[in-house]
Structure formats: C-alpha cells, structure tokens
Design a protein that fits this description.
WYL_dom, XPB/Ssl2_N, 811 residues, 34 helices, elongated
C-alpha cells in the first residue's frame, strides 16, 4: 500500500507530457473504463497482473537494474544502486540513468519525494533470491530471542545493549560494514572460512528434498557452529531446513570487486550493407510466395477438411496430404494453418478443422489483403507454428490447442525490436546472428529448443518477408509499431494484385505468373490438376481432369468459353481437341440407381462391358441389348468403369444427370453467438453483453484529465444511499463481489455492459486459485455466466469468489 501511495504522489507531480508517456507505455492501465483519478491509475499500474504484462517486455539491462534494486533494502538510493552495479564512469552512469528513465516510463521504478528509488511491489517479488542473495539480516533475525542476540554480539566482541531492539540494531550495523565481515572471516578457522566463502556465491540454501515436514534438521557441523554463533549464518530456532546466509554477509564476502551484472549495450552482430530496394525486392518475393502458398493450403483444406487426431491437432499424415495437394512445404502448411485459425478462417468442426464462413470472404480478396490478415495474426500468435518437433525430436501436430505461450509472443516482438535496432542501410550477415540480439531485447522470451537461439522465429520472419537480407522490411517496420493501416499500404505496395489470366500451352499446361485470382484458381482446379505452386503456378489438363469438370455439371461449350476468357492468347488446338474428345465419349454409358442399372444407346458398347474381365466383380448381367444390371452399388460401379477408361455418368432417380459437385464444408464459429441484450427470466434480472468496440483513449487527453481531477475519488458503498454509482450494473456487482475494490467493480461492470472480455482471478470452492479470461458475460446475481477461454466452454462463476479484475491487454 505504501508503494501505491508513493506512486500516486509521483504521478501527480508529473507534467502532462510525461504522464502521457506513462499512459502510452502502460495501455493496459487505461483500458475502459478509464481511471478517474491518479490514485486509481496507481492502483491499476501496480496490480500483479498488470506488472506481469509489463515484465516480459523489458530488455536485459532493465531487468538487471530491477533485480539489483530488488536486492537492496527499500527504498534505495541511486548511489547504492550505482555502487552495486559498478557504474563508476560517466558512460555507464548515463546508461543507468537512461534505464531508470525507461523503468519510470513503465511506472515500475520511480523516485519518491526524498530522491530515493521505489519499485512496484509485485516487481520486487518477481525474484525469490535477487542476485542469488537471501533475505537481509534484520528479517532473518526477527524471531531471535534477546539472549540469542546477546550471545552473537558477545562472540563479535561487542558489548550488548540492554534491549532486544538495540541488540538487533547493533548486530545489523556491524554486518552492514563489508570490511568488518571480511576481517572477521579472515581470522576464522579454515573449515568455517571455506564454508562461508563457498556459500557466498552459491545463492540461498534450499531445504533438503527428502526432509520430512515438521522434523528438525541435523545438528550443525563445527564450521556451521562458528558462523552461527556470530550471525554469519542464521538457523531457524527449531532447526527446520539449512542455515541461511544474510544478504549483507554474502555481498561482503563476494568482495569489493564484485558487481551485479549490467549490460546496457546490446551485442553487435556482423553487419553488411543493404539498400532499401534490395530489402523490398527480397521481401516482395517472400511475401508473394507465401501468399500464394497460403491460398493453396487453405484451398486444399476447403476441398477436403483435415481430420484431427484423437489426441487433438492435425497430425503428420494430414499435414503431408495438405502439403502435397497445395505443393507447399511443411513450414508453409503449419504457418498457414495456425495463422488462419487465429484469424478465424479455420475452426474446429467435430473431428475436422474446416474453413469458416470468414474464409469465403477472405478468398475473394486480393493477395495483399489476404496476406495482411495472416500477417496480423502471426504478430500475436501465442505459439511458434513452424516448430515441428519437440525437445525429444518427436513430431508435433498442428493446431494442437496447446496453452498460450507468452514467451513465444515475446520472441516474435523481440525479433522485430532487434531488427529495428540495426543501423539504417545495414543487415546482419547471417540471420541466425540475430539470436543473441533478440535475447538482449527480450530476455524472458522462449528460444528455439533445437538449434541456434530463436532460429524458428527468424525463419518464420524470412518466410513472411518481415525479415529480408538480414534487415527489417517495410512490412516488418509497421508490424512492429502495430500501425495496421500503414501495414496494409505496404502489403499492397510489395505484393502484386492477383493474376486473372493464364498462359495455355500446346503441351496441355496452364502457367500463371504471380498469384492467381480466386476465380482463376477455381476454374483451373476444376478442369486441370495443379502441379506446382510458387512464384509461377502450373496446371496440367488431362482427359480425367476434363471429365471431372463435366461431372461437376459443366458443358464442353462452357469449359471452352471459360478457358478462352482467361487465356492470354488463343486456345491451343490440342486443348480444344482434348475437350472435344473427352466430351464425345462422355455419357455414352449411363448408370441408374437400382443397385444398379446401366443403359446406353450402343448395344455393342454394353456387350463389351458385360464381357469385360476386369469388371466381372461388379456382377454385370445383360437384360436387353441396351440395358445391363449390376449387383454392385452405383458409386462402386461408376468408379470401376472410370478406372478402366470409360466415361459413364450417373443419373438421379428422376433420370436426370447427377451433378457431382461437393459443397465445401464450413465450420461454425468457435464461440456461440451472444444470447441477446437484456432479458428477464422468471423474475430474475439478466444483463447480457453484446460485442462492441471501445475507441482507444488518447494518452495526452487522459493525462490532462487525471491531473485536473482530485488525487482520489471517494468510493460509493452499495445500497447505502451514499455517493451514486455510474451504472446499475456497478451497484449490483459491488453488492455481491465484496472482495473487489471499486476500481475492479468498475472494470467488471464495464465489461458486462460493453460486451468486452475481462481477465479475473478466481478462487474456486476447492481453494484453487486460477486466472481466467472471460467473454460473453451474463450477470445473474449472485452469479456471472461467461464463456471461459481457459476451459473453452460456458461456465458459471460466483461473484464473491472473484478476487481481482484486469482488463484484457490490447494488441
């Protein structure tokens, strides 16, 4: 609570521009409903969930300074921090000041009124043992008796004061002087000296793994006893667990030359000059190839929805089938499936993953718009999609539904930050050299489990054209800043529009340079077989492919006219002959369902079928010169005749030709549609959310508003006739969720009214504490019905068991 009040005081002292900078860096704290006072803003900024969102985005020097500050007693002075980090020269001092300024912009570290440094409470608790140091002496001795303190002082040759507090202060003062500690240990016997020096750099001692709970530890060894008698090691009075070394003692024994790690300058990879045109050229080629491959992959999924494994996800066999059908390698298939699923173009449908209705809209767009949709999904994808094998080299399925990986997101953001740091006109000589630079920008990111660090994320960036010639492309620049409007403009600049014409050759091929349009792809897929898919795609015509088009209900005349409309030149004569010859033999034999009946106008052809040895298994029997009957079903008979080179057609019960056009499978939306706006059921009130978009707040305007408002605003009490609530929902939530402060009540009520997702800390009846993201909120006091993203299903939550609320972080 003390740190929150000092943070509110510091925020109130800022000018509008500086406060706006804090609001810009910590967008999560300004999510609707906007904070009404600096006090409420300080409360939001220091919540554990909010600090947890900011922590992974810190660079290495920021984390190093924060850890060093956590190791010092609070509040700490700048001089003490500088001494611990060893920033003696002017350059490192300036770099330390820059890091402290950056941490202040995040409201994680700030100066108080006395010039001391304060830090957010949850950030201080991020390390169990900052710098490998245990708790300070004063804390470790909080349970010691006055007589025990007197004995320690006597062993140190210090006259014990009369009171316990004075004795503790004297002991703390003695151990706070590194020279005294070093002098004392230098005079110690060999065994305790060796023990203490070894423990000083080993970090805090941990309890033995197999010590039974509640049983005392072993008696101290002679070396331990000497250190324990002088307070250099502290043993629990009941001897539970190993003896612990106070932080002051460990720091002193590490010596005056030891300093906490501080690396303010990022590593420098080998660079090579590169021009913007070279970067654009390579990025354009990569993006165009991926856009074409992605369209082919999703087209293959539309034609035959991939089947899911029983354990979940799409296995290697289905991935290979999709890759073969789309002429795409495994990395492109996996990357497309994961980004398309995240963008809502694919969804689970029973035992399959099928395209959704959004795919039908997407497929009609131009390649730049299609590519931008997948690129935006990749930016915040909570996994590394092209990671095909785990640490044990076992194949990983795609779309397996693994828990979200924030480290994977940070690896991608770190890649964008590292590439943006490179000097203008320079690119890394070897792309993998970006790995250490990414680790500097995002130390908490997940690295590649196999191969060089972050190799998988780097390869994905190259596949998408985000990274080209070792430098960040124009697409990557706007992807990093999150400017989606500019990203769309760059995609349209780098990617050509879809090609609507094909070069039809006398060798019965159709060649399309660039990305074919959806209409051209659909036509060629119907009448030809795709052979390659790259910067140029090739289809090949055959009698089987033309017959397939005829089976789909197309007439020879329509096929010829459609191909002539998309041909770059006149229709080649061999292709015209192929269509005519196939059409001439098409339908000469007709199969009617009866289980089944074959009939035609040519008795000689029917007799030939009846005598055909390879068709004997069908059980054909001639009833009349133009009629055969088969013991096999219609589809089996149809397939057998086609396998022998005939071109029969199937008829319906009415005698018309059956059109064999399969309707593409479409998956339903992954989350059920909202139930409505407001309803009353049996006298109970139900406030139901509907999805709405809230405009992003302007940090500058909000800063002015907060500085003009009172530092704190009184919280209304529910049902007491006091200060009014802003909405009825707030009053209802406050009446039941009594553990929530008013700031949390406001956020939860706003999420219910605005139909927005919210993150809550929930304690179940079993006592288990979980953090869940909820959407489609339906208030039914004392319960809250919602779609739980953790469970992937509707769940009912008791309002009184919600312990904290955090707005979902904006992308």
């Amino acid at each position: 609570m003390k740190s929150r009040s000092t943070l509110a005081t510091w925020l109130s002292s800022l000018d509008g521009r500086r406060l706006a900078r804090v609001l810009e860096m910590r967008r999560d704290a300004t999510a609707p409903p906007e904070p009404r006072s600096v006090g409420e803003l300080a409360d939001r900024l220091q919540r554990p969930g909010a600090v947890a969102l900011a922590l992974p985005q810190l660079a290495l020097p920021h984390l190093q300074v924060a850890e060093a500050l956590a190791a010092l007693p609070a509040p700490a002075s700048r001089d003490a921090l500088a001494e611990l980090l060893g920033t003696a020269d002017d350059d490192t001092t300036r770099e330390l000041e820059a890091v402290l300024e950056a941490l202040a912009d995040q409201a994680l570290v700030w100066p108080d009124g006395g010039g001391q440094l304060r830090m957010a409470g949850p950030l201080r608790k991020a390390w169990d043992a900052p710098l490998g140091l245990d708790t300070r002496l004063e804390v470790l001795l909080s349970g010691a008796t006055s007589e025990e303190l007197r004995g320690m002082l006597a062993k140190l040759g210090i006259k014990p004061p009369s009171s316990k507090s004075q004795r503790l202060a004297a002991l703390v003062e003695h151990h706070s002087d590194p020279e005294r500690i070093l002098s004392l240990v230098a005079k110690a016997p060999a065994a305790p000296r060796k023990l203490l020096e070894g423990r000083a750099g080993a970090g805090p001692a941990r309890p033995a793994r197999f010590i039974r709970f509640g049983s005392p530890g072993p008696d101290p060894e002679p070396g331990d006893r000497w250190a324990l008698e002088r307070g250099l090691l502290i043993q629990d009075r009941h001897r539970y667990g190993p003896a612990r070394m106070p932080a002051e003692v460990a720091l002193a024994l590490r010596g005056p030359g030891w300093h906490a790690p501080f690396q303010p300058v990022p590593p420098s990879p080998d660079l090579a000059p590169v021009t913007p045109s070279e970067v654009d050229h390579e990025a354009s080629a990569a993006a165009s190839a991926f856009a074409a491959g992605a369209a082919s992959v999703l087209s293959a999924c539309s034609a035959a929805a991939p089947t899911r494994l029983k354990s979940g996800g799409i296995g290697a066999r289905e991935l290979a089938r999709i890759g073969k059908a789309a002429h795409a390698d495994d990395a492109v298939v996996r990357l497309t499936l994961e980004t398309a699923y995240a963008a809502g173009l694919l969804a689970r449908d029973s035992d399959c993953v099928a395209p959704s209705e959004a795919y039908d809209t997407w497929v009609e767009q131009e390649p730049p718009e299609q590519f931008a949709v997948l690129l935006r999904a990749w930016r915040n994808l909570p996994l590394t999609p092209t990671q095909a094998r785990d640490e044990d080299n076992k194949a990983l399925p795609a779309l397996a539904g693994a828990p979200p990986c924030d480290g994977c997101v940070q690896a991608r953001h770190g890649l964008l930050a590292a590439a943006a740091w490179l000097p203008a006109g320079q690119g890394v000589l070897v792309a993998s050299d970006l790995g250490p630079l990414i680790a500097w920008h995002r130390p908490l990111a997940d690295s590649s489990p196999i191969g060089p660090p972050f190799a998988t994320a780097i390869r994905e960036a190259e596949l998408l054209g985000v990274l080209a010639r070792g430098a960040l492309s124009a697409v990557g620049v706007h992807l990093r800043t999150g400017d989606m409007e500019r990203l769309g403009i760059e995609c349209r600049r780098l990617l050509p529009s879809a090609t609507s014409t094909a070069h039809l050759g006398a060798d019965l091929t159709a060649v399309v340079t660039g990305t074919p349009s959806a209409r051209l792809t659909s036509l060629l897929n119907t009448v030809a077989d795709r052979e390659t898919s790259d910067t140029a795609s090739v289809w090949r015509f055959s009698a089987d492919s033309v017959r397939r088009a005829l089976d789909a209900g197309r007439t020879p005349k329509a096929i010829t006219a459609d191909l002539a409309a998309v041909a770059a030149g006149p229709l080649p004569q061999p292709l015209s002959y192929l269509i005519a010859d196939t059409a001439r033999g098409y339908g000469r034999v007709r199969i009617a369902p009866a289980a089944c009946v074959l009939h035609g106008d040519e008795p000689a052809l029917l007799a030939e079928l009846a005598a055909h040895r390879r068709l004997a298994e069908l059980g054909l029997r001639q009833l009349a010169p133009t009629v055969l009957i088969s013991r096999s079903p219609l589809d089996t008979t149809l397939a057998a005749l086609r396998a022998e080179g005939y071109a029969p057609v199937a008829e319906t019960d009415e005698g018309t030709v059956r059109v064999e056009r399969a309707r593409p499978r479409r998956a339903a939306a992954p989350v059920p549609a909202p139930r409505g706006s407001q309803a009353r059921d049996g006298g109970r009130m139900a406030v139901t959310s509907t999805a709405k978009e809230s405009p992003a707040s302007d940090p500058s305007a909000l800063a002015v508003q907060l500085l003009a408002a009172p530092a704190t605003i009184p919280e209304p009490a529910p049902f007491d006739g006091g200060a009014p609530f802003a909405t009825d929902t707030e009053e209802i939530v406050a009446g039941w969720a009594k553990r929530l402060p008013y700031s949390d009540v406001r956020q939860l009520a706003h999420a219910i009214d605005a139909g927005q997702a919210i993150t809550v800390e929930y304690v179940a009846t079993s006592g288990n504490r979980t953090v869940r993201t909820l959407s489609r909120l339906d208030l039914d006091p004392p319960y809250l019905e919602a779609w739980c993203h953790l469970r992937g299903a509707e769940r009912v939550f008791t309002l009184s068991r919600i312990h904290s609320v955090t707005s979902v972080a904006p992308e």
